[in-house]
Specification:
CATH class of the largest domain: Alpha Beta
Largest sheet: 7 strands, parallel
Radius of gyration: 24 Å
Number of strands: 13
CATH architecture of the largest domain: Alpha-Beta Barrel
Helix content: 25-40%
Distance between the termini: 38 Å
Number of domains: 2
């Protein structure tokens, strides 16, 4: 199920990057006078993402939809059809690579996200995975769509909508106690949870006592996280415990089993693309 579609302005930008002055080869060959059909299929198993954008690119270039796009989030096996379009041959060539490449990169992220979520839920069926804002600069809207398609949520979309207290903030607040800092954040932004990132069990206990609503353990082991979880479960209201820093498919189950409420990861953003096979053939008149 697709969470949203990227705007036409962005899709036009992607198309124009590849054909700023048209397609020299198609123009020289007069391919605008020919009709063809383009089929996109999954070359390997994948969680699909970006298919709605691929279809919209085709529509923006005047192509007709023969087989509507499978929705983002679909779990496809190798050889599964994704999308088919037809129309002028030069338009097919203009859409081919931007659409294919976008689907490949986003499907790579979505597939890696789904694998990470599955691994976490081997440790705890209720585990939640959140992906950080460390996507490639300028690609946030696409990357967030991909992690949503893979079953994760955004950890934070930016600095404007979350309260996440780092050591790099606390260095300027040495004269204030942890409880004072938490209180200041709660008074300033009362509807939002106060999240505090810590790097040790001792730090975590200090900020639990100070009233932090979420403790984010950075690069701690599952055993260390379990110590913090044991303390947190004795408190009311109980703070949520997040594992962050180095969370991957290989260790997600261990963190979830240790009691993490949330697993925070950037790993899916560096996933390899998932190949989308594209075939183009001429349509004969009549």
């Amino acid at each position: 199920m697709s969470p949203y579609r990227l705007p036409d302005s962005l899709l036009e930008q992607l198309l124009l990057e590849d054909t700023p002055y048209g397609d020299a080869t198609s123009f020289a060959l007069g391919l605008s006078q020919h009709q063809g059909v383009m089929h996109c299929t999954a070359r390997y198993d994948m969680v699909l993402c970006g298919s709605e954008e691929a279809q919209r690119m085709a529509e923006l270039r005047g192509l007709q939809i023969v087989l509507p796009a499978q929705p983002s989030g679909s779990v496809l096996s190798a050889g599964s059809p994704i999308l088919s379009v037809q129309g002028a041959a030069d338009a097919l060539h203009a859409v081919w690579k931007p659409a294919q490449t976008l689907m490949e990169y986003l499907s790579g992220i979505a597939s890696a996200t789904a694998a990470l979520v599955a691994a976490a839920r081997q440790g705890d069926p209720h585990a939640s995975v959140a992906c950080t804002r460390k996507s490639f600069p300028g690609a946030k809207a696409a990357a967030i769509k991909a992690i949503l398609a893979g079953g994760a949520t955004p950890h934070r979309l930016g600095l404007s909508e979350t309260l996440l207290l780092f050591a790099e903030h606390r260095t300027f607040l040495a004269e204030h106690s942890p409880a004072e800092v938490v209180s200041r954040l709660q008074q300033g932004w009362g509807e939002r949870k106060v999240v505090v990132e810590v790097s040790s069990v001792a730090e975590a206990l200090v900020w639990i006592d100070a009233g932090a609503e979420v403790i984010q353990l950075e690069k701690c082991t599952p055993a260390q996280l379990a110590e913090v979880v044991a303390v947190a479960r004795q408190r009311s209201p109980r703070p949520l415990i997040a594992a962050a820093g180095g969370v991957t498919q290989a260790n997600a189950a261990a963190y979830a089993q240790a009691g993490a409420d949330i697993l925070v990861s950037s790993a899916p953003y560096s996933a390899a693309p998932k190949d989308v096979a594209v075939s183009i053939r001429a349509l004969t008149a009549g």
